[in-house]
Amino acid sequence: MAGKSLVITSGKGGVGKTTTVANLGTALAMMDHKVCLIDADIGLRNLDVVMGLENRIVYDIVDVVEENCRLEQALIRDKRHKNLFLLPAAQTRDKTAVKPSQMKKLVKDLKKEMDYVIIDSPAGIEQGFKNAIAGADFALIVTTPEVSAVRDADRIIGLLEAEGLKNPEVIINRINPEMVKRGDMMDIEDIIEILAVKLKGIVPEDSVIIVSSNRGEPVVLKEDPKAGQAFKNIAKRITGQEVTFLTLEDDGFFTKLKKIFSLS
Amino acid sequence: MRSSISFKVTKKGIVLSINPNTRFNDLKKALQDHVESATNFYAGSDMYINISKCSFKIDQLNQIVNIVRGYKDVKSIVFTSKPIKDEVIKIKDNGETVLINRTLRSGQKVKKAGNVVIIGDINPGAEVIAGGDVIVFGKIRGVVHAGAGGSDHAFVAALKLEPTQLRLSNKIARPPEGSFKSKNIKPEKAFIQDGKIMVEDFEI
Ligand SMILES: Nc1ncnc2c1ncn2[C@@H]1O[C@H](COP(=O)(O)OP(=O)(O)O)[C@@H](O)[C@H]1O
Ligand SMILES: [Mg+2]
User: Fold this and answer.
1) B88 versus B169: which is more confidently predicted?
2) For position A251, what pLDDT does the model report?
3) Which ligand sits nearest to residue A14's alpha carbon?
4) How would you write chain A as a 3-class SS string?
5) Residue B134: which of B150, B122, B80, A155 has the closest Cα?
């Protein structure tokens, strides 16, 4: 049976797409699924760094579409999970090096072999974004609880709908429970109310993420961090399991989440 | 008795005419029955609803809109009071109302010569420009311009009026800085009075 492809996208840069792709991919592989990650951020590749695989790159996505190599040759096997692969972006080319039709074919070919194909989208709404969504069956939007990021997420949802990618879902990253409590942050309820899409998960702000990105070890590899738990829960939801939302802190926060979840 | 609604298929789409002598409840019933029996028969076509000589209250229009939304996969629904000829249908005159059946998201823009009715929200970063009135069965948080051709009689009504900016005819208003954003629905209507944009509560 063919696998599923999903694109992780956002509009605004730096909100955590690459972090999300690395962690969801690793978490799904830990659940024994066969997974391929595609870095579609051509010219600004960094999924390989976050995965700790930079020094294994020989061929990249542009080599595949230009037929300098076969698809299998370009796939890098993860050093920790043998059922996890990365198709890296080209660093010395730009977004125009790949066309949406080529992306579509590439993802289709990969889906024959994989359970999940996860595509890391560049920021923006131009060619790179169009490439990233071309082969996707569904989309996850990453936003932070900031007005500008939510605005861009809304724009992206509109564009996805126009491209026929219906019912995208949203991940809210870098929630800071302290700030939410103080009322200094957009709350989740407001974000979901504006975007009017289903909430797929909430990931707390955690400096462990920065450390683990630098080391090339996705945070889901560790037992403890709440952020890792959050990504694991999202991975489970992707496979169709029902998982209740994490309690980031005590009291008020959680009841609020329950309220939202019952809406969707 | 003449039937309360009648249908005609033209090159441009389906024309549904409402008999102006129909009692509102009969009309509703007739529409409901028709929507049910139509299932997805009209999928992909444009539907023009001719309300010529009819007069409806806002809440009645809302009820009609809610019923005709039941036509599955109709491409667009246009209210019109112009006689519709088989050959040419123009959506340009001021008497016409375009129905938009979704939320407008950031970056999306709607520009129409006539009235615009939206079932959904106008999100921040979205824009609606209408020659006539703008009625939103949802929240306005983006930019709305009614009476864009210079009509001082145009109005904007919404279940929640929190626009980034509101323009009526050649007047511009924006909510006061740091104004309180309520969570509740509070229908309001903005219009021009004595050369100023006024907002008042609005019964729907
Ligand atoms: N939940 C989080 N807590 C703390 N830092 C984070 C979190 N998510 C992402 N970051 C950091 O934010 C930066 C941008 O993340 P990245 O995944 O590269 O974003 P994008 O791919 O959307 O540009 C990185 O330095 C990353 O480590
Ligand atoms: Mg990135």
Assistant:
1) B169
2) 42
3) 1
4) CCCEEEEEECCCCCCCHHHHHHHHHHHHHHCCCCEEEEECCCCCCCHHHHHCCHHHCCCCHHHHHCCCCCHHHHCEECCCCCCEEEECCCCCCCHHHCCHHHHHHHHHHHHHHCCEEEEECCCCCCHHHHHHHHCCCEEEEEECCCHHHHHHHHHHHHHHHHCCCCCCEEEEEEECHHHHHHCCCCCHHHHHHHHCCEEEEEEECCHHHHHHHHHCCCHHHCCCCHHHHHHHHHHHHHCCCCCCCCCCCCHHHHHHHHHHHHHC
5) B122
Alpha-carbon distance A134 to A129, whole Å?
Answer: 9
Identify the structural domains of chain A with CATH numbers, from first to last. 4-263 (3.40.50.300)
Which residue, among A194, A197, A259, A263, would best test binding to B if mutated, counting the most B CBs under 10 Å from its CB? A194
| Cβ < 6 A, ligand 1 pocket | A 10, 13-19, 173-174, 203, 205-206, 209-210, 213, 227
pLDDT tens digits for range B9-20: 666 667 788 888
Q: Which ligand is nearest to the CA of A152?
A: 1
Size of interface A-B (CB pairs under 8 A): 27
Q: With an 8 Å Cβ cutoff, are B121 and A196 in contact?
A: yes
| Residue A155 touches partner B, C-beta closer than 8 Å | yes
CA of A109 to the centre of ligand 1 (A): 30
Per DSSP, the three-state class of B108 is coil
Q: How many whole angstroms from A31 Cα to the centroid of ligand 2?
A: 24
E strands, chain A, are 4-9, 35-39, 76-77, 84-87, 116-120, 138-143, 169-175, 198-204
C-beta atoms of B125 and A194 within 8 A? no
pLDDT at B41: 65
For residues B134-150, average pLDDT? 93
Query: What gap in Å lies between CA A149 and CA A189, rounded to an integer?
Result: 15
Task: Give ion ligand 2 contacts, CB < 5 A.
Answer: A 17-18
- pLDDT of A109-163, one tens digit each? 999 999 999 999 999 999 999 999 999 999 999 999 999 999 999 999 999 999 9
Q: What is the ipTM of this complex?
A: 0.76
For residue A105, what pLDDT is reported? 97
Tokens of B82: 């112009």
